Amino acid sequence: MAPVRVARRDSTAATLAAAREEERRIQAFLRASARAKVEGFTVYCLRHYAITLWLRAGVPVHVVQRMAGHKHLATTARYVHLLRGDLDEAAVRIGNTLATASAVALTSPPPDAA
Q1: d(CA 28, CA 10)
Q2: Of 11, 35, 91, 96, whose CA is between 20 and 30 Å from 18?
Q3: Dihedral, CA of residue 71, residue 27, residue 21 and residue 67, to nearest 10
Q4: pLDDT digits over 3-14, tens only?
């Protein structure tokens, strides 16, 4: 049996089609923003917000990289600096949990002391 040939789509045509589709989405967003009287907010603001939310939700950075379409992990890593406040808050919460656990351990009798 002869091998099945798969027609290859012209990569230039595919790239142009993708660019046109992206342009249509951006224009639709701009029209919706104008109707809602929202200024200074772009499609890229939404993208930035989504990537930050994914990282905040604990999605591994390499997964966010793929979801965002970033070629290099360093591009995605730029979003991590925004989470510094979240990291500080987490450190405080962990410290409080450890302090509480230590206090309980110090005031509770050993399990086999009964």
Answers
A1: 27
A2: 35
A3: 30
A4: 545 455 567 888
Distance in angstroms (rounded) separating the CA atoms of residues 76 and 55: 10
Nearest to 70 by CA among 55, 53, 51: 51
CA distance 13 to 19: 10
The CA R_g of the chain, rounded to the nearest whole Å, is: 25
Tell me the per-residue pLDDT of 16-54, one tens digit each, with 9 for 90 and over.
888 899 899 989 989 999 999 988 888 888 898 999 899
Q: Which residue has the tokens 């200074």?
A: 40
Question: φ and ψ at 87, to 5 degrees?
Answer: -65, -40
Instruction: Give this prediction's pTM.
Output: 0.54
